[in-house]
Amino acid sequence: MAEHERKKQSHIKEIEYLEKAHEYTFNEKINKNKRTLNYWQNIIPLKYNKFNFTNENNQHELTNYKPLFIIGLPRSGSTMVEAILSSGNTMIKTLGESSIINGVIVTTHNELQKDENKKIDLNIINNKVFEIMNGRNFLNQKNKIFVDKSLENFFYIDIILKIFPNAKFINTFRNIEDNIIAIFQQSLTKLSWTHTIENILKYIDSYLKVMEFFTKKYPDKIFLLNLTELTGKLEETSKKLYNFCNLKWNYEALDFYNRKDLFISTASNIQIRKKIENYDYDKYRPYKHLLENFYDKYDWLNQ
């Protein structure tokens, strides 16, 4: 119904339907959503750079892999980047939004839920990640490269680099206000923080702080990819991306939308089947009033 009103450009009615849909979705699994929302708002944002690692120096089967982790916010161009990376000459397995790292950490380290605990046993993490990835045939033994598009992995960069010291990260981003509205318009049912503007802003505030920290800490490990630049200068930007990933670029990487074997399970499935268009600066302009009450709280808004 919200989409129908959007097509009619009846934005007030669209927002009413969106708010009702988000409320229903959150309440449908309210206990789980409250628990995960608390984790994303009050636990991991306070611990991402304070982990105490144990069993750190053990050599492991995963040490020699060279994974590419696409991180950032939903609706920021991450699916397009995934398709570009997996469409070149080098055969690269893509895991999609596997959430393996997050799942392993949450299930094996329940003590992280306690305020004082920041301990991470790398032996446990390594073994469990290897068990899952090997069991799902995710590990490419030939070139040791794979792509993981679990966007929340920006919280776990320190942990990931302990597991995969050769890992690299591509942080996709776009105009932040457009990104907020795009997330709110989408039904991201598995993400508890996406169902109100207020919670979206809290999550993004944490994301910006975390990425500022890690970009300074690991400047050679993180590639910042602006969706506007990618759509406006596709060949030039994709070549820079491939160079960062130590991959050989070719025009096939830009022809991903013609692939018959391209499987996308996210909300970007339809968009990714079309040729890339230039960034639309006016698309979200009618919704900017939704953010007015938050300008004083977040100085990164309305810049």
Describe this structure as you would to a colleague.
The chain has 303 residues and is an alpha/beta fold. It has a single domain, classed as Rossmann fold. It contains eleven helices and seven strands. Strands 3-5-2-6-7 form a five-stranded parallel β-sheet, with helices on both faces. The protein has a two-stranded parallel ribbon with strand order 1-4. α5 packs across α6 and α8 packs across α9.
Shape: globular
Overall number of strands: 7
The total number of structural domains is: 1
* Series of H and E elements: HHHEEHEHEHEHEHHEHH
CA-based gyration radius: 20 Å
Ends: how far apart?
Answer: 32 Å
Classify the oligomer: single chain
Percentage of helical residues? 40-55%
What is the average per-residue confidence, as pLDDT, rounded to a whole number? Answer: 90
- Unreliable segments of 5+ consecutive residues: none
In the CATH hierarchy, what is the superfamily? P-loop containing nucleotide triphosphate hydrolases
What is the level 1 CATH name?
Alpha Beta
Please state the structural category. alpha/beta
**What is the helix tally?**
11
